[in-house]
Structures are given as C-alpha cells and as structure tokens.
Amino acid sequence: MRGITVTGWRAALNAGARRLPTGVIYGAGLLPVPTLLINAQSGALGPEPIKALEHALGTYALQFLIAGLLITPLRRWAGVSLLKFRRALGLLAFAYVCLHLLVWLVLDIGSLGRIGADIVKRPYITVGMLGFVLLVPLAVTSNRWALRRLGGLWHKLHRLAYAVIALAGLHYLMIQKVYDVQALIYAGLVVFVLALRLPQLVRAGKPG
Ligand code: HEM
C-alpha cells in the first residue's frame, strides 16, 4: 500500500514537472528582484537597506546553487526527474550572484580603489570572488551548443559546481557572527549535497 502511494506521488510529480514550462521557473525565480527593489525604495528593508539587499541577493544565490545540485541526487535516489530545470536553477544562481556582486561594487564599497584591497584583505570576499569566477565558465557553457562542442570535457568542467558550492558555503559561514539555526541549515545542506556526490567525485578522480 505504502509503495503504491510513494510511486503514485512520484509519478504525479514527474508528470507535473514534464508539463511545467521552464520559463515558469525563470519567472518565479526572478520575482524577488523587483520586490526587493520596491522594498529598498520604500524603506521596507530596514535601517541598512544596502546590507539587507546584499544579504537577500546572496541568500537567493546560495538557495538556487543548492537547489541545482539537488536535482541529480533527487533523480538517482528518489526517482524524481527535474533535470529539465537544472540549467534554469544554475542560471538563476548566477544571476543572483551577479546582482549580489553588483550591489557590493556599486552600493556597498562605493570606491573603485577599494575593490582590489577588499578582495585581498578580506578572506570572505576572496572566497566569494573565487566562487563567482568559477561560476562564470559554468554559466557561459550552460547551453546545448557548448555541451555539443565540449563533449566529455563539458561534464568535467561542470564538476566545478561542487567547488563553487563549497566556496559559497564557506563564504556564507565566514560572514556569520552567530551560528543560528538558519546558518546551520545552510551549512548542513551544503555538506549534504557535497557528501551525496563524494563517492562519484572520488571515482571520477581515480586514474583509468
Ligand atoms: C558563489 C558566490 C556567492 C554566494 C553564493 C554568496 C552568498 C552570500 C550570502 C548568502 C550572504 C549573506 C549572508 C547572511 O545573510 O548572513 C553573502 C553576504 C555577502 N557577500 Fe556574498 N556570495 C557570493 C559571492 C560574493 C562576492 C563575489 C562578493 C564580493 C566580491 C560577495 C560579497 C558579500 C558581502 C560584502 C556580503 C555581506 C557581508 C556583511 O554582512 O558584511 N559575495 N553572500
């Protein structure tokens, strides 16, 4: 009885996912952007709107990174196929990281001279920047044309996603002043997605 219920639930989820256009994920995923901007304008983001904006954009980036990396384990271990949304989730993560970086560059540090100094002097910025730099080739090659052109190399390149999530998790933890429940949940999720893929990564790293 229980097996039938789980199978039915999974089949319904897979059927729903097949019918759902990817555009809906992009649309829903980008919805927080205008909301955040309106709230920043109206003063609803509190006494430090720039910090709040920076934090919110970074948090969305982290959430989309984690969601994108949960797609393969979900298919492998739960039989839920959301593969068609993986690219959208990755690109949404990239878009939020870009906006996060933009807020930092334009609104937070406010002086060109401080960019290099901050990257060098503040370890959490160095780590975040490294995460961003590694994310760029993944975003650029996230299309079918690049997949066809790069062949096997594409899969190797996209393993960088694990380095990105590790750096993003580290960046996040370095910023925390207190390790509250939310921080522990994000840290746990990052460790979880990395641990799920560890056996595969070790196998892929072995020669022959
Ligand atoms: C993979 C890329 C990145 C991810 C996923 C990410 C994620 C985050 C998250 C989730 C926060 C909020 C932490 C909280 O709410 O407590 C945050 C804060 C922040 N991030 Fe990032 N970030 C990334 C890259 C960067 C880059 C490239 C920079 C700048 C060069 C940067 C600068 C900052 C700053 C300045 C803060 C606020 C720190 C503070 O509270 O003073 N991040 N980031």
Notes on the structure:
The protein is mainly α. It has one domain. Helices cover 84% and strands 0% of the residues. The chain contains eleven helices and no strands. α4 crosses α10, α7 packs antiparallel against α10 and α10 runs antiparallel to α11. The radius of gyration is 19 Å and the shape is globular. It starts with a helix and ends with a helix. Protoporphyrin IX containing FE binds next to α4, α5, α7 and α10. The site of protoporphyrin IX containing FE has 25 residues, from α4, α5, α7 and α10.
Write the layout of secondary structure elements.
Layout: H1 2-19, H2 22-30, H3 32-42, H4 49-78, H5 86-109, H6 112-121, H7 123-140, H8 144-150, H9 152-157, H10 160-175, H11 181-205
The chain binds protoporphyrin IX containing FE.
Jot down its keywords:
about 0% strand; binds protoporphyrin IX containing FE; about 210 residues; mainly alpha; about 85% helix; globular; single chain
Question: Brief description of this entry?
Answer:
This protein is mainly α. The protein has helices at 2-19, 22-30, 32-42, 49-78, 86-109, 112-121, 123-140, 144-150, 152-157, 160-175, 181-205.
